[in-house]
Design goal:
Distance between the termini: 17 Å
Strand order of the largest sheet: 1-2-3
Largest sheet: 3 strands, antiparallel
Structural class: alpha+beta
Oligomer: single chain
Amino acid sequence: MAKFESRSAGVYVPCEPPGVPSYNASADYGVVTEFSVSDDSKVTGAELRQILTDVAYRLSEHTYQLAECGEGRDLPAELPRYEEGR
């Protein structure tokens, strides 16, 4: 799941840590990545949303691999593209 708010983007990918069986987990686990830029960004609109979301997604993808998550999800090569005005 990805979300975008003004000049920041966040991505959440469910992740069961190694050594924690899901039936023993007391809370949901996941990789959460947030990425933001300052107000003086030269890029705006859909272009900015796409860049921030793509960077947050790549960081999540890398962290997910390092975390050796138990369920082994197949993450997409890229997220859907934003359109101007959305």
